Every structure is written in C-alpha cells, then in structure tokens.
Known about the structure:
Order of helices and strands: EEEHEHEEHEH
Strand order of the largest sheet: 1-4-3-5-7-6-2
Helix content: 25-40%
CATH superfamily: HybD-like
Strand content: 15-25%
CATH class: Alpha Beta
Amino acid sequence: MSSRSAPDRASPEADSAPPEADSAPPEADSAPPRILVYGYGNPGRQDDGAGVLLVEELAAWARSGERPWLTFDSNYQLNAEDALAAADQDVVIFADASRDQLEGFRLRGLQPSAAVSFSTHAMSPESVLALSAELYGARPAAYLLSMRGYRWEPNGALTREARKNLEDAKAFITPFLDRPAVGLPVPSA
C-alpha cells in the first residue's frame, strides 16, 4: 500500500538518541523533510497487524489535508527492495507490533546495522538502512515505533489493549508528521 500524503501522550517508552541524518533540520521557510512511515506485520494474526493498521489510518488522515511530504507503505515483512524506498526519504519511521513488555509503545532511534543480516523471509529495519547506505549512499534519520501486542492467533481481530496502544502511538506521532520541523521527541540514552 503506497500512498503520498499521514494528542494525548500515553507514557511511551523512548530510548536512543535521534539518529543523525545526512542533512541539517529544515529551516522554517524550507520544505518539510520527506518522511516515510512503513508499517509491517501480519494483519491476519491479531495484534501482529498493528503496524500495518497504523499506516492505513495515518495515510487516511494525511489524505484529509495537504501533506505531500508524507509517504506510507506497508507489508508483511521488510525486504531488500525497501532499501530504495528508505533511500528516497529524509526520515523513515518503521512501525511494528512487539511482544516486548512495553508500557503501550516505544519510539527509538535506529542506525544501520554493522553487519547486514537477513534471510529469504525477513529483514530488520537496521538491515534495510544498511542496504540503503551501501547501495544508494543514503542515511535517512530512522526510528522504530513499537506497539505492544498481546495476542497472535490466526484470523483474529486486533485486541482491545493493542488498539489502545495503536491509538496512543498515533496520537504521539501525528503532531510530528503534521509539523515535522518540531522534531521527534526521542530523549538521549
């Protein structure tokens, strides 16, 4: 699902310093940074689909206003081909469900992995970033927005608890997407 267009903060866990991008933050008069929000997971496995659902909802929100700096994409998993999509952006926000015992959701900065590791089935966000740097010379600022999931059964709907975490994460990230010059609130470690 690719489309161009995307507040009550519920105790997100945030860690890692914001990653360094190749360019300085935009001036107030300049165009906003190009931002890709990429959700991944399996919507057919209950809470595993939270990242994809978040992207669908943010894309619908973005279409309701003039936000041409936003791009949205989603898939069951990350692939080598996603390195090109990341290379075309100034900021990439990966969104996924997590089995970790988070307090709702967590936003953390990402860096390309030192060793690109992937299988024929999936890649990590860090591996996508490493390929983007290696193949295209691009190093966008990158983040992982993890939303706690609770159930992973096939053919089930998103749980009520995961829906709340998704809504809280969406409320947290939306102000940045709407006015990206404000920056993402990721404290240093």
